[in-house]
C-alpha cells in the first residue's frame, strides 16, 4: 500500500505497467473503473469518508492486481483499511488463505462498507435539519438542505460507477480472478 505517488514510476518499470495506467494513478480525478491488461488488472475506486468536521471527502484508490501480488496506491495516509490490516496481522479468516484477488475484494468491500457510514452521517444531518425546521422556519435550513442534496449527489457520482466497475470485474474472465473470489465480488456488487 503506497501513498507516495512518486514511487509509481519505479514500480511501473519493475512490473511492466503501461505508462497510461501509471498516468491514471497520478491523475486522481478518475471515475471508478476496471481495466484488464492481461498480466495485471487495474482498478480505480473512490474512498469516501467524513472528515473531522463531518464534511464528506473523497480519495482515489488505485489497485494493480497481478499474479500473487496486489499493490494499492492512495492519495493520503488515512483510509478505511484498518480492519483488513488487523486481519492480515493476526492471520484471521480467509484473507491469508486466499489469493491477492481476495485481498483486493476485501479492500473494495471495506470501501463499500464505508459508503454506508457516510450515508449514516448524511441521514443524521437530515434528521437534525428536519428537527430544526419544525422549530424554526428560516432560509438557513433551506441552505442546509441544499448542501445536503449536494452531498447526496456527490455520493451518487462515485457509488454508481463503483457498482458498474464491480460488475465489469465480475464479468471479465481474467485468469487473475479466481472462481472462489467471484462469489464475493457478486455479494459486493449486490
Question: Would you give an account of this structure?
Answer:
By secondary structure, the protein is of the alpha+beta class. It is 55% helix and 17% strand. The chain has helices at residues 8-15, 19-26, 82-90, 100-135, 139-171, 179-189, and strands at residues 33-36, 40-50, 56-66, 69-74. The protein has a 4-stranded antiparallel sheet. The chain is elongated.
Task: Give a nutshell description of this structure.
By secondary structure, the chain is α+β, with helices and mostly antiparallel strands.
- Taken as a percent bin, the fraction of beta residues is 15-25%
Question: Could you name the ranges where pLDDT drops below 50 across 5 or more consecutive residues?
Answer: none
**How many β strands by DSSP?**
4
Proportion in helices: 55-70%
Q: Structural class of the helix and strand makeup?
A: alpha+beta
Order of helices and strands: HHEEEEHHHH
Overall geometry: elongated
Read across the widest sheet, the strand sequence of neighbours is 1-2-3-4
First-to-last CA distance: 27 Å
Compute the number of helices: 6
For the sheet with most strands, the description reads: 4 strands, antiparallel
User: What radius of gyration results from the CA coordinates?
Assistant: 19 Å
Q: Summarize model confidence as the mean pLDDT.
A: 84
Amino acid at each position: 500500500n503506497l501513498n507516495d505517488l512518486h514511487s509509481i514510476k519505479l514500480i511501473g518499470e519493475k512490473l511492466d505497467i503501461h505508462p497510461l495506467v501509471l498516468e491514471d494513478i497520478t491523475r486522481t480525478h478518475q471515475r471508478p473503473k476496471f481495466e484488464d491488461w492481461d498480466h495485471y488488472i487495474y482498478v480505480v475506486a473512490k474512498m469516501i469518508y467524513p472528515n473531522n468536521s463531518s464534511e464528506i471527502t473523497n480519495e482515489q484508490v488505485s489497485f494493480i492486481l497481478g499474479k500473487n501480488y496486489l499493490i494499492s496506491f492512495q492519495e493520503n495516509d488515512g483510509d478505511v483499511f484498518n480492519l483488513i490490516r488487523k486481519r492480515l496481522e493476526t492471520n484471521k479468516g480467509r484473507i491469508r488463505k486466499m489469493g491477492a484477488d481476495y485481498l483486493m475484494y476485501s479492500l473494495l468491500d471495506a470501501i463499500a462498507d464505508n459508503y454506508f457510514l457516510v450515508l449514516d452521517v448524511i441521514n443524521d444531518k437530515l434528521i437534525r435539519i428536519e428537527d430544526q425546521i419544525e422549530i424554526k422556519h428560516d432560509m438557513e435550513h433551506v441552505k442546509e438542505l441544499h448542501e445536503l442534496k449536494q452531498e447526496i449527489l456527490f455520493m451518487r457520482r462515485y457509488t454508481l460507477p463503483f457498482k458498474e466497475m464491480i460488475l465489469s470485474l465480475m464479468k471479465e474472465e481474467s485468469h487473475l480472478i479466481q472462481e472462489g473470489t467471484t462469489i464475493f465480488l457478486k455479494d459486493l456488487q449486490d
